Amino acid sequence: MAARPTGRVRVAAIMLSCAGITLAVTPAQVRAQYGVAAESPSDALARHMKALAADSRNFQALIGAGKAALALGDTQSAAGFYGRAEEVWPSSPMPQIGKGAALAQEGDARGALPYFARAQQLGAGVLSFGLDRGLAYDLLARHSEAQADYRAVLGGQDGDEARRRLALSLAISGNRAEAVSTLGPLMARGDAAGARVRALVLALTGDLAGARRAIDAAMPGSSNQMAPFLQRLPSLRSDQKAAAVHLGIFPGSGQTAVASVNSPAEPPGDRLRSIEELLAGTANPPATVPPPAVVQAPVRPPPAATPAQPVRMASNTALNRTVGQQVSTRRYWVQLASGPNPAALPAEFRRLKGRHANALKGLSPYVAESAERSRLLIGPFKDREDASIFAEGLESDGVSAFSWTAPEGQMVRKIANE
C-alpha cells in the first residue's frame, strides 16, 4: 500500500507537469485541451465561493467548490466543502464520493474506500466514482479491480482520463500490448496527454529508450529532465509504481518525494481563503483566490449506513428565474422526461413530484418543444457542470434525470399550471 504521505517533501513541479499526469481532470479541462473555451478550475472556484458567500448551504456551490478544489490539488479544502455539503443533504452520495476522491488524491487509498462504499449504499453508480476508486485500488495493488472501475467509466464524461488511467494500470500489471492499444483512440486524434501517458507506459514496462523517444516526440528536449523519473519506475513495486505515475510519490530514504500534480496554469498558490470565513458569510469575495491559510478539515471514516431524510437544496428557488414565459438565452437544463405530446408533460411533472416531493420541492417545470419530441425540464443553470451536479443529486434520490443543453435559439417555456 502507498502510505499516506504526511510530512512529505514537495519537489519542483518538473516531473508530473512535464508528464501531464494530473488527478481529477474535469470535463472543462479536457475541452480546454482541444481549444474550446471553458471555465478554468480557479474561475469555477471563485464563482462557487461567491455563491456560498450569499448562501452557505447552497449544495450545488459546495459540491462545485469541492470539485474545483480537487482540480487545483487542494484536497484539504475540498474535504471541507464536501463535509459541509453532507450536512446540507445527508442522503446524497456526492459528498461521500468527493471525500473519497480527496483521500485517494492524498495517497490514502485505504481510507478512501469506505467513502465509495457509502456512496454506493446511497445509490451512486460506478460511473460516478469509478475513476477515483480505481485510483485507490491501483494504490493498493488491486489492479484488476482498478481496471474494472476504469472500464466502467470509459463511456462517461471522464472517459478520456479513464482511458489514460486504464493504460497506466495495465502497464503496471505488465500488460504492455493492451496498455498501448488502450491509448489508440487518444493517439489517433492527437491527444497530447495520451502521448505523454504512452511514454510512461513504455517506461513502466522496461522500455526506457522508447519512453525517452516518446517524451522527446511529445515535448522536444524534455527527456533529459524526465530521465531520473523514468529510470526509477521499473524497479518499484506495483503499488509504488501507481503512486509514482498517478501522484508523483516516490519511496525514499526516510521521506517521500512528491512532484506537483498541478499544471503550470494552476499553481499551488491558487488556494482558498479560510473555509470558515467563507461559510460564515464573508461579503464580496475576490474574483481570484489568494493563498492564505486553509482550514485543515479532517476526513473521518463514514458511519454505517442509516436511513436519512433528504434535505432540500437551498438553491432550488433560485433556479426558477425566467423572462416572462419564455427563456431563450439560458441553455443548460436538467431533463426529467420527454415525449411526443407536450400537453402530457405537466401531468408527468405532478406525478414525479408526488413520488419525489423532497427532491423536487420548490422547482418549477419547463417545456422545450421540437418537431421530434418535447422535453420536461427544470432549471436553468449557470453551465453544464452545474446542471450535471443537480442531475446527479436527483439521481441519488431515485429521480431519472440528466443534463441537457438547449440548441442555439431553442425556446423553453415555463409550465403555467403545475
Rounded mean pLDDT score = 74
Rg result: 22 Å
Count of extended strands:
9
CATH class of the largest domain: Mainly Alpha
List its salient traits:
single chain, 418 residues, Serine Threonine Protein Phosphatase 5, Tetratricopeptide repeat, Alpha-Beta Plaits, 2 domains, three-stranded mixed β-sheet, 20 helices, 9 strands, disordered N terminus
Q: Could you characterize the architecture of this molecule?
A:
The protein is α+β, with helices and mostly antiparallel strands. The chain has two domains: about 10-280, Alpha Horseshoe (Serine Threonine Protein Phosphatase 5, Tetratricopeptide repeat), CATH 1.25.40; about 315-415, Alpha-Beta Plaits (2-Layer Sandwich), CATH 3.30.70. It contains 20 helices and nine strands. The strands form two sheets. Strands 4-9-6-7-5-8 form a six-stranded antiparallel β-sheet. It starts with 8 loop residues before the first strand and ends with a strand. Mean pLDDT is about 75; it is low at about 1-35, about 255-265 and about 270-325.
Topology of this protein?
Elements (H helix, E strand, L loop, with lengths): L8 E2 L3 H6 L7 H7 L7 H14 L4 H13 L3 H14 L5 H13 L2 H13 L4 H14 L3 H11 L5 H14 L3 H7 L1 H5 L3 H13 L3 H11 L4 H10 L5 H10 L1 E2 L6 E2 L16 H5 L46 E2 L4 E8 L5 H11 L1 H4 L5 E4 L4 E8 L2 H13 L5 E4 L6 E3 L4
Parallel strand pairs: 1-3
Antiparallel strand pairs: 2-3, 4-9, 5-7, 5-8, 6-7, 6-9
Helix pairs in contact: 3-4, 4-5, 4-6, 4-20, 5-6, 6-7, 6-8, 7-8, 8-9, 8-10, 9-10, 10-11, 10-13, 10-16, 13-14, 14-15
